[in-house]
Amino acid sequence: MKVILDIKENRVPFFMELLKSLDYINILKEIKNKEQSQAIQDLAEAFNDVKLYEEGKKALYRLDWQLVFDLLYLQWRKFENFFALSNTQNPIATEELSQFEVQSVYGLAEFSYKNAIFLNATARNDWSSTLPEDNRSYFYPSVGITAVVTDLVDFGSGLSFLKLRANWAEVGNDTSPFRLSRRADIRFGTLDINPTQPNPDLRPESTQSLEVGFDSRFFDNRLRFDFTYYKSNTFDQIFATPTPVASGVSSVFQNGGDIQNRGVEVVLGASIVRTDNFSWDLDLNFARNVNEVLEIAEGFDRLTVNSDFIRDYVLEVGGQYGDIYSRGFERDDAGNVIVDDLGLPLITPGRDAVKVANFNPDWLGGIRNSLRYKNWNFSALIDIRQGGSVTSFTEAILARDGVLDYTAVGRDGGLVFGQDIFPG
User: Fold this and answer.
1) Smallest Cα–Cα separation from 368: which of 223, 270, 259, 262?
2) How far apart are CA 210 and CA 136, in angstroms?
3) Contact partners, residue 354, CB within 8 Å, separation at least 6
4) N or C: which end of the chain has fewer CB within 10 A?
């Protein structure tokens, strides 16, 4: 018991006042003069909550003093007339206040020729208070042209409908407040200066996109085929890039980046059965997107945008958005895993050394069946997401704790790396 009391006195001084007020100290001192079961009963009864009493009694029988301390803390938090934030049920309270303003003007124009060729144009200008005065105003237009070819040329009964389309657009975006000047937060009654250095010369982000395609119908709309190709580039994204420790800040906001997305979308549909009382339509769609990081912020070819216990989310020039990195085996120039003198594989020192996953799918698809019988309609949709990979935080924890089946290999002492596990 002396060891336990010493821990309370040296490491958790506020528990001493609590224990004294509840007469726990005298109970602990009397333990040496009683049978263990009676002493535990006396100490457990000091808990004034039924649930805490039961849990405390179990912990005392197991001599689980850490749990006893936790239970004492729970009781202390609910101590009457002890006026402290730590004596509340939920001691963490946060509040955020930010104000910004965006003013905009927008215009739209549409022209048509023979009700078959349409030209649309839009223009918008925003003024955002979150950007510096010289860059506060940003303009982004769009233009699109559509031609219904079958309204201009008769192709006969085989081609029922054909529409060609092309669009170009630019979209602007501002940023969050408090990125032009240093922000101060009040946390738990103290003033906390935000560790990210502001940038008074930030520019608005912009995305430019191009899309072309066609919609077609054949044999009195019994067969449908649509195709779209698109490409978009996002420029001047705002990143919090890391800075040297000696600078006094952890990161600095700056513009940069060029992330490109391009892909195709295909839709194929058919009216398999069509009568007055019954119809069956089948539609198939396919989409594939390929993205590439063409440029990051000035001075950076690689940037970790987020991280957790087991992985880093990394942007790297030439890589893809969504690349996930983690620890892995050290390898030689031939790709072989390097082992030490004990035959154990060497592990990379950081989480950003080995690409382990990318959550983006290889392609997306769908199958839709639509049935109609008189006034009744029924449809069924199957969505397909093929490819892409993730890292499982749960599996990593379970493997570390040795509770998964594949971690049992070699527990008899016969484990040879490259033979029993990781062959080749």
Assistant:
1) 270
2) 26
3) 325, 326, 327, 328, 329, 348
4) C
pLDDT at residue 3 in the model: 32
How many whole angstroms separate alpha carbon 260 and alpha carbon 209?
Answer: 10
- For residue range 128-140, list pLDDT tens digits in order: 999 999 999 999 9
pLDDT in tens, 3-38: 333 333 333 344 444 444 444 444 444 444 444 455
CB proximity list for 234: less than 8 A, separation 6 or greater: 205, 206, 207, 257, 258, 259, 260
CA angle, corner 98, sides to 93 and 99, nearest 5? 150
Could you tell me the sign of the dihedral formed by the alpha carbons of 350, 353, 356, 361, in that order? positive
Residue type, 187: R
Cβ of 21: how many Cβ atoms within 10 Å? 12
Helix, strand, or coil (residue 78): coil
Burial 40-78 (b: 16+ CB within 10 A, else e): bebbbebbeeeebbebbbebbeeeeeeebbebbeebbee
How far apart (Å, rounded) are the C-alpha atoms in residues 46 and 61? Answer: 15
| CB neighbourhood size of 182 (10 A) | 12
pLDDT at 265: 97
Q: Are 266 and 285 in contact (CB under 8 A)?
A: yes
* Cβ–Cβ under 8 Å, residues 364 and 287: yes
Average pLDDT over residues 80-93: 55
Contact between residue 127 and residue 172 where contact means Cβ atoms under 8 Å apart = no
Phi, psi at 50, each rounded to 5°: -60, -45
Contacts of 423 (CB under 8 A, 6+ apart): none
Chain centre distance of CA 105: 33
User: Which pair of structure tokens corresponds to residue 379?
Assistant: 């449809």
Residue 420: strand, helix, or coil: coil
The Cα–Cα gap between 249 and 89 comes to 35
Vertex 271: Cα angle to 266 and 276 (nearest 5): 155
